[in-house]
Design brief:
Elements lengths: L4 H16 L15 H13 L13 H12 L18 E8 L5 E8 H9 L21 H13 L33 E5 L5 E3 L12 E3 L2
Parallel strand pairs: 3-5
Antiparallel strand pairs: 1-2, 3-4
Helix pairs in contact: 1-2
Length: about 220
């Protein structure tokens, strides 16, 4: 839906106030915006365009919740596979990124070492903040008492899920595979061959037997 004009004006006015008081910081290619005239021109361009609010759908189901939270709780700011060789003489760091505005193409961005560290530190939590917190039953101040009560309540709950015990079948299971040579079902593994072609024979399997012997090359 469109952004209300009154809210858009209030937002831009708050940005202008932060810029006037020196609380906005600009680094890299954005350093020219430190000039008051350049920043005011940028705000004028923003106000002339139509703002649209994007509201993403809610997360439904435990699988989607774990998938969503897992992207933030167990991931670092940048993985090692995205880093490229560091140019020690130029004191720069290069890494790959996905340009969503250009059909999700992979590109390489080169930054100075200082700018790279500055951007990396933006993903670090301030002192005193915890990345993963437990609330409710798993809260640190009530975990020992509440978890015991919850388990006791689940034992007598009519909503408790009881998995069905599979019935034992009296019929013999079907053979897993047949011999590729005689189509027999009495296969016996006498050894294994790895990807490099080395065959390891099993000592017990080499004893005489009535069944034909074939090596398992899986």
């Amino acid at each position: 839906m469109p952004w209300p004009k009154c809210s858009r004006a209030s937002f831009c006015a708050a940005l202008l106030q932060l810029h006037t008081t020196g609380k906005l910081q600009f680094h890299g290619e954005l350093q020219p915006l430190q000039n008051a005239a350049a920043f005011a021109s940028l705000l004028a361009q923003l106000q002339s365009r139509r703002w649209v609010v994007f509201a993403k759908g809610s997360v439904v189901g435990p699988e989607h919740v774990l998938d969503y939270l897992g992207r933030y709780t167990h991931r670092v700011a940048i993985s090692n596979s995205r880093l490229r060789p560091i140019e020690a003489s130029a004191r720069t760091v290069a890494f790959t990124y996905k340009d969503y505005a250009d059909n999700n193409r992979l590109k390489t961005l080169t930054l100075s070492g200082v700018e790279f560290i500055r951007r990396f530190r933006l993903h670090l939590l301030p002192q005193g903040f915890t990345k993963i917190r437990h609330y409710g039953l798993l809260g640190n101040n009530r975990r020992k008492q509440r978890v015991v009560l919850a388990r006791a309540a689940l034992e007598s709950s009519p909503l408790r899920f009881s998995p069905k015990i599979p019935s034992r079948s009296t019929t013999a299971p079907a053979p897993l595979s047949n011999c590729p040579h005689c189509q027999g079902t009495q296969l016996r593994c006498i050894g294994r061959a790895n990807r490099w072609g080395t065959i390891t024979f099993f000592t017990r399997a080499l004893l005489p037997t009535r069944a034909p012997l074939y090596s398992d090359s899986s």
